[in-house]
Amino acid sequence: MPYVNLGRSGLKVSRLCLGAMSYGNPQAKPWILSEEQGRPILRRALELGINFFDTADMYSGGDSERVLGRALRDFARREEVVVATKAYYPTGTGPNQRGLSRKHLLHAIDASLARLGMDYVDLYQIHRWDDGTPLEETLEALHDIVRSGKARYIGASSMYAWQFQKALMTSERHGWTRFVSMQNHYNLAYREEEREMLPLCRDAGIGVLPWSPLARGFLARPRNKADTTRAQSDAFARELYYSEDDYRVVDAVEQIAAERGVTQASIALAWLLDRAEVTAPIIGATRMEHLEQSVETLSLPITPEERARLETPYRPHRVLGHE
C-alpha cells in the first residue's frame, strides 16, 4: 500500500480511503451493513494497509461513527490510523442542529468524538457550504477546534471553486487554520471538477479525496444492469447519472474491462488513480472482494490510448453534488 501526503500537509494517508457510510444501521438504508457485517471488512482494510477512514455525523444517524470507532479501537492503535468525519447536515430537528454555525460545529465535534470514542479526529471536514452562516464564523470555529486539540487538520467538501478560494484567502488573512483537503464529486461519469476545482487544488496544494469514485456503482456494471440492493434502491444516484451520455461512458468502461480481463470497477478506479491531482479516492465496500479488488487496482496501469477511449464519450453536465 503506497502512502502519500495529504496536500501540502505532513499527514501521510493510504492511496485509498475507506468510506464508512456503508456501515451502521441497515434500517437507515437497505444497502447499509450491520456492525457485525461491516467489522470484517474494516479489519481487512487495515490488514491491506489502508490507514485512512472517512465517515460523517449524519451517516446512519451517527451509527457509522460508532461502528467505525469500535472497530478501530479493537483492530488498530489510534496513532496508526487517520480518521476523518464531517459536519453540516441535520443531526436533529432543531434549527441549530445543522449548518456551519459556531454553535453547531462546537457541539458537532464533541458529539462525533463521543460516538467515535476518540479524543480527536485527524481530519474534520465541512460537509457542504453554508450560505446561512458568515464564512468568518465558520472558519474561526474550525480554527478553535484545531487549537483545542479536537482535530488535527480541516477539510472541505463539494462546493464551487470560487467559494473554496474565498475560504482559503479568508483563513490566510486572519491567520486561521487552512484547509488541507477537498472531498469532491469526481469520477468518469462526472468530470465538471476538471474545469476549476482541480486546477485550484493543484495550485493551492490541496489534497483531493473524490467521493463516489464509481458513481455510486453506476460505472461498475454493464448498461441497464441493476442487480444489487443499492442499485435498485439508491434514488440519489438516479439524480446524478443514468443519462444516455452517461451510459456511453459505461460502455467504454465495459469494453476496456473485457479486454483487460478485469472488472469495470477496476478500470473506473484505475482511471481516477491515474489523475495527478487525486490523493485518495473514497471507496465503499460492502463485500470483501470489492475491497480487495480496489487494492489490487493500485497496480493496474491505464494506457494513454485507454484513457482517451474512456474520456471521449463524456459530455458536460450541470453542476451535481453541491446540495
In short:
With 323 residues, this protein is of the alpha/beta class. The chain is 41% helix and 12% strand. The protein contains twelve helices and ten strands.
Count every beta strand, where a strand is a DSSP E run of 2 or more residues.
10
**Briefly, what CATH class?**
Alpha Beta
Q: Into how many domains do the coordinates divide?
A: 1
Give the name of the CATH superfamily. NADP-dependent oxidoreductase domain
CATH architectural label: Alpha-Beta Barrel
Encode the helix/strand succession as letters. Answer: EEEHEHEHEHEHEHEHHHHEHH
In the sheet with the most strands, the strands line up as 9-8-7-6-5-4-3-10
Q: Into which percent range does the helicity of residues fall?
A: 40-55%
Mean pLDDT: 95
Description of the molecule:
The structure is a single chain. By secondary structure, the protein is an alpha/beta fold. The longest helix has 17 residues, at 244-260. The strands form 2 sheets. It has an 8-stranded parallel β-sheet with strand order 9-8-7-6-5-4-3-10, with helices on one face. Strands 1-2 form a two-stranded antiparallel sheet. The protein starts with a strand and ends in a 12-residue tail after the last helix. The chain has one domain (3-311): TIM Barrel (Alpha-Beta Barrel), CATH 3.20.20. It contains 12 helices and 10 strands. β5 (82-87), α3 and β6 form a beta-alpha-beta unit. The protein has helices spanning 35-47, 63-75, 102-116, 135-147, 161-174, 197-204, 229-233, 235-240, 244-260, 264-273, 288-296, 304-311; strands at residues 3-5, 12-14, 17-19, 52-54, 82-87, 121-126, 151-157, 179-183, 207-208, 282-283. α3 packs parallel to α4.
